[in-house]
């Protein structure tokens, strides 16, 4: 299934505004994060496990256990962002 990924603040500076990712049915936000970390060194650094990171699924804050559905939008951003 296709999922739209959006990046904000410092993550956007490192990776760009976003991308479309092919993801297995029933995958979680955490699985998506792992897939992205493995995508490139830049992704690995920006989305690293040790970094504080917030996530949203279809514009609602979520944790890594949230299940992603087809055509969903997942956003990654640091815990504090500017206006």
UniProtKB/TrEMBL annotation:
SUPFAM superfamilies tied to this protein: MoaD/ThiS (SSF54285)
Alphabetic keyword roster: Nucleotide-binding
Pfam families according to UniProt: ThiS (PF02597)
Record family assignment: Belongs to the MoaD family.
Species: Caldimonas thermodepolymerans
NCBIfam families assigned: moaD
The protein's name in its UniProt record: Molybdopterin synthase sulfur carrier subunit
Gene Ontology biological process: Mo-molybdopterin cofactor biosynthetic process
Record GO terms (molecular function): nucleotide binding
GO CC terms: molybdopterin adenylyltransferase complex
UniProt key word Cell membrane: no
């Amino acid at each position: 299934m296709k999922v739209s990924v959006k990046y904000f603040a410092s993550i956007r500076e490192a990776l760009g505004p976003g991308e479309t990712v092919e993801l297995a049915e029933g995958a979680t936000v955490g699985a998506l994060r792992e897939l992205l970390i493995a995508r490139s060194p830049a992704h690995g650094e920006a989305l690293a496990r040790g970094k504080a990171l917030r996530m949203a699924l279809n514009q609602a804050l979520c944790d890594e256990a949230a299940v992603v559905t087809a055509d969903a939008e997942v956003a990654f951003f640091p815990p504090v962002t500017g206006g």
